[in-house]
Design a protein that fits this description.
α3 crosses α4. The protein has two domains: 214 residues, Rossmann fold, CATH 3.40.50.300; 74 residues, no CATH class. The protein has a six-stranded mixed beta sheet, sandwiched between helices. The longest helix is centred in the C-terminal third of the chain and has 18 residues. By secondary structure, it is α/β, with parallel strands linked by helices. 34% of the residues are buried. The chain is globular, with a radius of gyration of 21 Å. It has ten helices and 14 strands. The structure holds adenosine-5'-diphosphate (ADP). The site of adenosine-5'-diphosphate has 12 residues, from α1.
């Protein structure tokens, strides 16, 4: 269990990136969902011991991550958002190098570890290829191989599916799902489907604040009977947005379908639909925006 308590961070430029973030993250896949600029990377980098918060604490079971960074790094696997690689080095050689850095010094052991990870991430057949020739999906799978060196207890992946095509994304998410249920895996993303497909628990963060935490299906249930759908002419969209709480607009077969949040049927022509995680997400962000406008 990862326990985060009252984590706050203000950057030198005055941006308040984290505001009293408190989260309990059990073993398994945890989705951290928020729009660009919400503070996800700031939180991920702080947990990964790469930057300090101004105040607050982080514990992985009994390990104090803030106070004992070397110990934290030994149990941590991190796939950062911007993942620089040497383009001329082969996947195998690069992974071997990372293994040395991670403290897997004995040559024989390292060979075994590197081979197992290349096979697990389905990169064995391309292990001799230069990283510069890898597709986005292959790079991300390599990133997971690198993060898994040394059997980490805490794995952090920051926006891993951005820019992947659907097939690569599926492959990547399946790999992540296999990583195990006896470790904490935090998946930071602005893509709602990543969380719907993969995570048993999640949090939504906006403007540095935790807006909601729990199980996705419970969060969806909490909106039961309040989500209404209608296909509208494109020209009328702005009018609906003015008059109603429009959570999302989707273009389906050239027609615009909107989801509206309302306690009762907003008007004739709307039908009730089962809430999905996008409804939860956009509903919560809207509420925060309305609250901060009122303040
Ligand atoms: P996210 O990962 O959710 O997009 P970030 O943690 O990257 O969010 O950013 C949160 C806020 O902090 C943004 O307003 C961003 O511009 C700002 N920010 C991030 N890193 C820095 C930094 N090193 N210095 C100043 N401001 C930063």
């Amino acid at each position: 269990m990862l326990s985060i308590r009252d984590l706050s961070k203000t950057y030198a430029n005055g941006v308040h990136a984290l505001r009293n973030v408190t989260l309990d993250i059990p073993n398994g896949m945890f989705g951290l969902l928020g729009p660009n600029g919400a503070g996800k990377s700031s939180l991920m980098r702080t947990i990964a011991t790469l930057q300090d918060a101004d105040s607050g604490s982080i514990h992985l079971d009994n390990l104090d991550i803030v106070a004992d960074k070397p110990a934290a790094r030994r149990v941590l696997g991190y796939l950062p958002q911007d993942f620089g690689l040497y383009p001329k080095v082969s996947a195998e050689a690069m992974l071997d190098h990372f293994a040395v850095l991670k403290g897997v010094v004995a040559r024989g052991e390292r060979k075994t570890v590197v081979e197992a990870l290349l096979r697990q991430t389905n990169l064995w057949d391309v292990r001799k290829r230069k990283l510069g020739t890898f597709s986005g999906g292959m790079r991300q799978r390599f990133g997971i191989a690198q993060a898994l060196i040394g059997n980490p207890k805490l794995i952090i992946v920051d926006e891993p599916t951005a820019g992947l095509d659907p097939e690569e994304r599926n492959r990547f998410l399946n790999l992540l799902a296999e990583v195990g249920e006896d470790v904490v895996v935090i998946l930071s993303t602005h893509i709602v489907e990543d969380v719907t497909d993969l995570c048993s628990r999640m949090a939504i963060i906006g403007q540095g604040q935790v807006l909601l935490t729990g199980e996705p299906h419970q969060a969806m249930q909490s909106l039961d009977g309040q989500i209404w759908r209608r296909t509208v002419p494109n020209a009328a969209l702005e009018d609906y947005k003015q008059r109603m709480s429009v959570l999302s607009t989707r273009l389906i077969g050239g027609k615009t379908t909107i989801h509206v949040l309302a306690a009762n049927r907003p008007e004739e022509g709307f039908e009730a639909v089962a809430p999905d995680l996008e409804d939860v997400y956009f509903g919560r962000l809207r509420l925060q925006a309305a609250t901060s406008r009122a303040a």
